[in-house]
Request: fold
Amino acid sequence: MKKHFRYKTVVFFCAFILSGCANLSGHSLFSHYSASTTSSRQALSQGQIQGALDKLPDEPAGAILDGMERGRLTLLAGDYTASFAALQKSDNAVKEQQDAARIQVSEGLNQAGSLFTNDNMISYQASDYELGFLHLYLALNYIHNRDLDGALVEMRRANQVQEAAKQQRESELASAERQLQKEGLADNIGSVLARYPNAGQTLAAVQNGYLFYLSGMLFEADGNLNDAYIDFKRALAVAPDNPYVAEAVQRLAERLGMTDDQQLLAKKYGPWQSPQSGTGRLIILDEQGVVQAPEGWRLPLWLYDSQGQSVLYNLALPYYPPRPAVLPGKLSLNNRLLTAPPLVNVDQMAKQSLSETLPVRVLRQSLRVIAKEQVRQSAARNGDEVGNVLANIFNALTEQPDTRSWQTLPAQVALYQEDLLPGRHQVQWQGSSVEAEVQPGRTTMVWISRQGQTMRGWSVLLGEN
Reply:
């Protein structure tokens, strides 16, 4: 009778955990995000955009990430209405999530479920770099529709949401460090962190040169030279070796009469050369490849149980294994090969973002494996063989790494700029081309994205340069 009662208790416990997380996908419980998106990512890396859309699972990680993935893929597919709708869906979900009062109860259930299952049961919180890209792609939709005002709004919002996300991440990290000390786990987890592949913090890994440069370009086209100068300088801080970013800063320093800055810039980059009269500026933003997806990584963690015995636990964490970048070759402009230095390395940003959240992830994992083991040991001590077996199976199946991230982003974005004579010019690659009209005193932006052997893109004529 007692064994039957304990068996029912275990079943009821599992049912409670599952029902508490019923708003999330079954993928989250017994698998992880990267595993569910493998087919879609493979299609995207081969340039098969419609195939990537068709194979994308239906909201395995909730509305925020689903909107980001679909918004990016439909943008590549040229369906700008669907792209804007998907990105707005994600944006609205982020707004709702940031209202702590509205999600407190439901998130409490998700946190409880995650204690006995895995981190995938916690509602997904987008990284600050992902939020920056969310508003960047909303802005690109506006630019494609020739709505400069709408694009500028998204640029301003991008800076705001990234800062809010950064503050929240720092708060969570500080809280985790306090709890590590309270639980007496600091030394044990410190050994885990020491073995974890670290991205290494650099400015280029935490700030988005693509976002800053695009923002500066839009502000300049709108005649707001002061804000343009600020964002171009931010882009240069992130990509100090990019000559086209340096040229933009020097150009604005000249126009704004920033004499001291002009002298400093000239020492490092050489004197600025004003463009030939009657030319127009062509700017190419070249998105390349597909960002790396995190994989699962299991490693041992030694802890002491309630009896003072050393016990070996296993953690399941996301990580980025070493992988050579697979990037397309050079673009051509009017049959002339171009050299386009990088603005941002998205792979590097993704790795750094994961590295920053690692202490919080390891703390949750450690508390979870201990809680799971205590349930199993309790069943074993009470002679509940069925419960012990069920607990072992449940623990093994549900310990999954949290690999959720925006996995349809490019791996890298490069920049090319040139002042050209008026007329129609061709940006070419692998038999495909994008036509760009250049007019005197105007800026023409060309947006290109290349995956596999496929190039997609468009051009738009902006304001004065």
Remarks:
- DSSP finds 18 helices and eleven strands in the chain.
